[in-house]
Input
Amino acid sequence: MLPEEQMALRKIRRVRRWFWISVLGYVPLFWLGKQLMRSDLIITLIMIVWVIGVVHATARVAFSACPRCNNYFHATTGTPSFWNLFARACTHCGLPLRASRVVYPSME
Ligand SMILES: [Zn+2]
Output
């Protein structure tokens, strides 16, 4: 695997991690906001920032390009998608997300 591919796959893993952090951060963020600041305005501002963060993270996941085939990593069609978020490999060329899982035909 080329070093550029490894760097791009590392970036895809990082983007997916941030997606999950932003989605799962909803409960602790709002619990903290509600406990620390009893103002509805502050809670509303936190909610707006959270929604913007989730939309941004989702867009980054959806537009992640495979370093090998240059198609969208999570999309089965040509349209960006995040529905295959648990995909362990590119949905087009099968490039695995983890470099340790690459098996070259000559090594079998
Ligand atoms: Zn690919």
